[in-house]
Amino acid sequence: MRQVFLVSACLAGGFFLSACANDDAGTVERAFQDVNVVDETDLNDVMLTAADPNEAVSYFTRSLEGNADRIDLQRGLAISLVRAKRNIEAVASWKKVNALPGATNADMVGLADALIRTGAWDAAKVALDKVPPTHETFRRYRLEAMVADANKEWEKSDSFYEIAVSLTTRPAGVMNNWGYSKLTRGDYGDAERLFGEAIRQDQSLFTAKNNLVLARGAQRNYSLPVIPMGQIERAQLLHTMALAAIKQGDVSTGEGLLREAISTHPQHFEEAVRALRALEGA
User: Fold this and answer.
1) For residues 32 and 245, what is the distance between their CA atoms, to the nearest angstrom?
2) Which of 31, 132, 229, 273 has the greatest number of beta carbons closer than 10 A?
3) How far apart are the C-alpha atoms of 198 and 172, rounded to whole Å?
């Protein structure tokens, strides 16, 4: 009887040790899985921000092999394609994202953004119309404003730009876009004001400086604005002002501005030299 008890105890002990070993193995395996998830998430974030865009495209493309239903990977690929300026491919990728379970309003806005980059304005408007009014983000309203601009719906455009400006702490870029919209409509005074606001928000934004000079030139104001500028920037802005003057028919003023641009530039200013020679030849 005692032998039976000992055998039973040994068997029970063996089963217990085996169960413990299995539990330990399972715990270790789950721990490694958790570590892998964390590592993958970190790597995905790196690829979306710091990596070369085309390298990121290759990474997400490889990661999607056998994981086509992973919306996070498909979204990463779409974002990376936009960063790589492969916009036609990005449109196809964003469409896949929006067809997957778990797609968000932000994903539809991402599709609209990619469509705008390919010049598909009507399709972009259709995509934005699918986004509910409750999705109030800077990106959404910036794109809404751009689509309204393309359709020459100026009241809508102004309203959307105003909302977009209120939804970001860095409005310089959208103010520049809004100013350019005003410039194309011939509303030069408002355009000048908006470009000035953009520069106050971001003094490194040369596009806004150049647009400001265009707005002043369109009003036959050929003096450079008082804004932060380096020597090369000053020469470039004088060149832009010269071309604006010539376009307005103020040829002698334009010629003088070209000469000033050439003398201001610290190196050889080929574009201004060419323009001056063409003017003299004419």
Assistant:
1) 68
2) 229
3) 4
Cα 171–175–176 angle (5° rounding)? 120
Rounded to an integer, what distance in angstroms lies between the CA atom of residue 143 and that of residue 73?
24
Percent of residues, the chain, with pLDDT higher than 70: 85
Q: Is 69 in contact with 100 (CB distance < 8 Å)?
A: yes
Q: What is the pLDDT of residue 32?
A: 37
Taking the chain, what is the end-to-end CA distance rounded to the nearest angstrom?
Answer: 122
Residue 236 half-sphere exposure toward CB, CA atoms < 13 A: 12
Tokens standing for 50? 């710091």
Q: What is the DSSP letter of 225?
A: P
Q: Angle CA(181)–CA(185)–CA(189) in degrees, nearest 5?
A: 85
Residue 91: half-sphere exposure toward Cβ, Cα within 13 Å = 14
Q: Which residue has the tokens 């080929």?
A: 270
* φ, ψ for residue 225, nearest 5 deg: -70, 160
Supply the DSSP symbol for 61: H
Q: How far is CA 90 from CA 104, 125, 147, 205, in A?
A: 17, 17, 19, 27
Give residue 107's pLDDT: 98
Secondary structure letter of residue 227 according to DSSP: -
pLDDT score, position 48 = 82
Residue pLDDT, tens place only, 51-82: 789 999 999 999 999 899 999 999 999 999 99
Angle between helices 87-99 and 105-117 in degrees, nearest 10: 160
In which residue ranges of the chain is pLDDT below 70? 1-41, 50
